[in-house]
Amino acid sequence: MKLLNLQRLVQHEDLNFLLTNRVPRIALTRFMGWFSQIRSPLLCRLSIAVWRLFTDLDLGEAKQQRFASLHDCFIRELKEGARPIDTDPAVLSSPCDAIVGACGPVAGTTVFQAKGFPYQLRDLFGPSQDTSPFHDGQYVTLRLTSAMYHRFHAPADAEVQHVTHLSGDTWNVNPIALQRVEKLFCRNERAVLRMTLAEGGHPLALVPVAAILVASLRLHFVNLLLHVRYRGPNEISCRAACRKGDELGWFQHGSTIIVFAPAGFTLADGIQTGSRIRMGQALMRLPAGPAADPA
After folding, report:
1. Which domain holds residue 228?
2. How many angstroms separate the Cα of 252 from the Cα of each of 6, 70, 249?
3. Do residues 230 and 165 lie in contact, with contact meaning Cβ atoms separated by under 8 Å?
4. How many CB atoms lie within 10 A of CB 38?
């Protein structure tokens, strides 16, 4: 009963917002990054036990069951076959396990993080990026909770051609914060991954957005760890071919990925705010016919 009352207290909106946002976010994030790397199986087991008091953490699908550190648990791999990939070439599969947030058409250049809280593509992508391929396009916000599988994967056969890193804050990205903090995604640490699909040559963008506690992003195709202390180049060119379902990298804690596609793409059946999706399931459908010239 006491545990249930504690969970209800933490879930109260005002208290939740206070505990997860009105704190020294970046300092706490750096501390948690250090703490999660401590290699102590006993400390890890105790930390996981506390973690489970507040989340629905399920390690049944994890490839390994014992971890030397919280970091190892955060970035755990899954057993072979745990996430079947939709093989239809006309389908973009979800890059991650997630709860679907705001989604639907981009209104010209305006996107919504929550009802009544718009932001502009240029503010999210940064001043160096051409956002015109995604004007009047489609987007899906995918929120990874702390207990979810934290690795993300290619939604289609594609080539990753550019990464833009934008430094920022580490606001919590839960629905409570999204309904209170304007342009939250545009304030947080994030990266913009620009891709070209093998099917039709369509452009695609994945925007991983960091959040409080462990705001670190590892990408396999560039030898960098993007995090709040990163001071390297913001513009990173690459030519990394990937197959649908290939692992692209991981978050070291829960966060968000926003997927942007051009006009003509449509949301897959069942994709709506609040629905749960697993990596590999259908997220969007490609338009019929060749891609339009972005110019």
Report:
1. 91-285
2. 26, 9, 10
3. yes
4. 13
Q: Give the separation between CA 120 and CA 134, rounded to whole angstroms.
A: 11
Residues 122 and 42 in one domain: no
Which SS3 state, helix, strand or coil, does residue 18 take? helix
Is 86 inside any structural domain? no
Q: What is the pLDDT of residues 210-262, one digit of tens each?
A: 876 666 788 898 877 676 666 677 899 999 999 999 999 988 766 899 999 99
- In which element (H, E) is residue 3 found? helix 2-11
Q: Higher-confidence residue: 111 or 145? A: 111
Indicate if 100 and 183 belong to the same structural domain: yes
User: In the chain, what's the furthest Cα-to-Cα distance?
Assistant: 61
Integer CA distances (angstroms), 201 to 34, 51, 105, 153, in order: 42, 43, 20, 19
Q: Which helix (H) or strand (E) holds 178?
A: helix 175-178
Q: Tell me the residue type at 133.
A: P
In a domain, 81, yes or no: no
Say whether pTM exceeds 0.70. Answer: yes
| Average pLDDT score over residue span 87-111 | 97
Tell me how far CA of residue 292 lies from CA of 79, 192, 229, in angstroms: 39, 22, 39
Mean predicted confidence (pLDDT) in 79-87: 95
Task: Specify whether 61 is located in the same domain as 175.
Answer: no
Count of domains observed in the chain: 2
Q: Annotated active-site positions, please?
A: 97, 153, 255
**Together in a domain, 65 and 98:** no
Residues 28 and 132 occupy one common structural domain:
no
